[in-house]
Structures are given as structure tokens and as C-alpha cells.
Amino acid sequence: MVRLPVWELGLIILFPMLIAMGLRGMLEKRLVDSVPAIRQSLMQFRLELGLFLGAGLGMALILLLIYHFPLFQSGMKLVLGIVTVGMFAALDLALARERIVIGDALSGRASFEPPRELSPMTRKFSLVATSILLLITGIIMLVIIRDVHWLAEQDLSMDSVAILGRSVLVEIIFVMGFLLLMVINLVLSYARNLRILFDNETVVLERVSRGDLTRKVPVATRDEMGVIAGHTNNMITALREGVRMREGLLIAQEIQQHFLPDSAPEFPGLELAGSARFSDETGGDFYDFIECERDACSRTAVAVGDVSGHGIGAALLMAAGRAHIRQAASVADSPAEAINMANRHLSRDIEGTGRFLTLFYMELDPVEQIATWVNAGHQPPVLYDSASDTFTELRTPNIPLGVTEDWEYMQDEIPLPGPGQVLLIGTDGAWEAHNRDNEMFGNDRLQQVIRDNASGTAQDVLKAVEDAVHAFTGDLAQEDDLTLVVIKGK
Q1: For a FRET experiment, which of 116, 365, 387, 422 has its CA 20 to 30 Å from that of 192?
Q2: Where do the domains of the chain lie, and which CATH numbers do they carry?
Q3: For residues 230 and 105, what is the distance between their CA atoms, to the nearest angstrom?
Q4: What are the tens digits of pLDDT across the range 50-99?
């Protein structure tokens, strides 16, 4: 076997490596820097491993063509050694590239969307570990085979066997120690990258837990850490939208609360009280006291409405309905005409939406001592007379507002409530409140509360009904808006 001088063997190794290093800068710009940041680490690994493999094959060809070394013996041994070194170098440089990408991402040059393709950590670990084990095993086997072959050619004595054995053992330990150091370096490098990613994810999540949604997690890898970062960003985006919607709802709630009367008006011979409790930030219920001038006489109108549905849509329709009713009440000659006008306008506004507004509207006339009312598909108010201990429901065969603009609403009238009489106007949030056994509060319970508190003021009756409904439902969330108006004769 031809033995080459060390300097000549060094030149054979150095020449292909120099060519590879010369090509590296140009190839890195074209193959690595030009791809999206999230793929640069993988492309860096492929480039480095390809260069080492090319250099190894170049060395093998030089040995074959110039020195006639067997390609599949000496040449492949050299290629295997170079590829093993290249594997460690490529992995280390890929991790270094990943740190650059992470640094750029942390400085703001990053994507925040989840990676389109997932490259699982388990698969990468399996491929890298298997490849390294196979390469290490191959190198150790080649070293052992070469040493055994070399020992077989020696003229050995008992003393020389021990010396040569120690030499072989030292060589194997040296090779294994070198490979072990390379593995430890990779483990530390990868752990460093993971620590950076974990720390950044943790910092952002801690800020989110404190309500700070100003930062996102840069997506710098295609593995599970990238997926977690991307979905964390989606969560932050959703939370930002939720906060924005919440702020909008709070503003809408504030505006809607201003729509409700600050207090009940004074009316001769009557006590009036009203309240509204919404189940959400905004509600579809409303009540209103409207001063209307007609026939040189000041009348007070009481309106209680309930829009179908909940949330911001119901709140918008409530605002529109309230405006139409107030406008119509100021110019119409009768309650029925006022509701007809309001219905025509509202029907045009909400045509095709499937929404509607139930309404009870009553005008109190202090001169004629009568109450003229229209019930537009609303929960019938109850009039209690303590003298006879009887309840009367105020019903008319009218439909809710907004269903059709051609409907002609009918009105009816009753005397104003006298002493000992209580009129309760409310929305179905009182009657239809449920407890844990799924029982409804119902008409009987409501009537009993009115009966038990009829001797109190209008405000006393109203509060008693609210408290009774709340006690009935317990700690269950309020299912529907609860709006009540009480008119009590003095």
C-alpha cells in the first residue's frame, strides 16, 4: 500500500476544502439568504453538508486518479470521515443561522403567522440521532478494522502486543472523544436556541397574563415552537379584537344608559318608577317617559319595549325604535296613530332582517283621568286592585312593530290607577326567568310579589319584583334583559 507524506496528504485534503470554501459565499447568498427566513436554517444545513460531501468526493477522486487508491476502500473511508465532520459542522452552522434568524425576528423583521409546513422536533431528532449514530458506528468500525489489519501484519511478541494494544485503545478513545465533544457542542448549541425561543414565548405570555397585548412572538422556526408562537400570536390578535369590541360595547352601554330616564316624572295622583337591567353590556329593552302636548293639555306617555335578540344589534334597533316612538308621540293625535307612524318608519329600517320590537305604549291624561294604551305584541301588563284582590291583563290583538308597515294598531283605555291599584309593565325577562330546576318565575309568583307589596310605593313594588326574580334565579347568569315600570295610584 502506498503511504503518502503528511504534507502531501494535507494538500489533498486542503485543496478541495479551499474550493468548497470559495464557493460557499456565493452559494450561501443564492441558496440561503434568498429564501424566507424560516427556511434559512434548513438551507444552511443542506449547503454545508453538500459542500463537505463534495469536498470528500473530490479528495477521493484525487486519490483515485493521481495515486490510484481504491475508490471503495481508501476513498470511501476518507469520504465517510469528511461527511461525519461535515454533518457536525453543518448542524452547528445551521443552528448558528437559526440564532441569526431569531435575532432578526426579535428585532422586528419576522413573520407572526404559524408556519405553513410543520417540521416536527421528533422527526428532526430521530434523523439527526440516527445519522450521527450510523456515522460514528461506521468510523469506529473502520478504525477497528484498520487496526486489526495493521496488527495482523506486525511481528508481535508478548511485550509488543501490550504496547500496540494500548496504542489502538488510545486511538479509539481519541476518535470517540472527538465525536463526543462534537455531540456535546451540538446539544449545547441547540439548547441555547431553545432557551431563546422559550424565554421569548414566556415573556410574551407573561405580558398577556397581565393584560399587555402590545407584543407578539416572532415565528423563527418551522417546528412545534414556531407553531406555538404562531398560534400565540393568533390568540393575541383575537384578544386585541375582543378588547376592542369590549371597549366598543362599554361605550355603547354608556350611550344606551343615557337613553334611559334619569328619574320618573311627577304626575298628579300617581307614582311612577322604572328600571332596566341588561343581561349583556348592551340590551334590547328600554323604557321611556315622554311628555306630549295635545289639545292644550300636557300628557305623559309611558313606553316599554323589547327588541328581539340580544347584543349590539338589538341595542341599535332599540335606539332606532325609541327615536321613532318619541318623534311620533310628539306629533300624532292619538296613541294608535303614534304607533302606526313609528311602525311604518321602523318597518322600512329593518325590512328583511327578521327582527322586530314588541311595545307597550300608554298615554296618561291628567284631565280626563284616563290611560289610553296600545299593546303591540308585548307581554301583557298586569293591573292589581287591592280592594278586590284581582288582577287584570292589558291585551290587544296587535302585532310587534317592524313586522309589516301596513298594520293598523288598535288602542284601548282604562281609568287611571286609583288608590290601592298597581299597574306593572315589564318585559318577559321577569316572567320567563329560570332557576336551576328550569322552572319559570311565571305569572303566579309575579302576582304574589305585587300583592305582598301593594301597600308600598311604586319604587318599593319595583324593587320587590327585581329582588324576587334575582332570588329565584340565584347565582345563575341573567338570561334576558329585565325592564319594569310601575304606576301606582295614590
Answers
A1: 116
A2: 6-237 (no CATH), 261-489 (3.60.40.10)
A3: 13
A4: 888 887 777 777 766 776 666 555 556 667 777 888 888 888 998 998 88
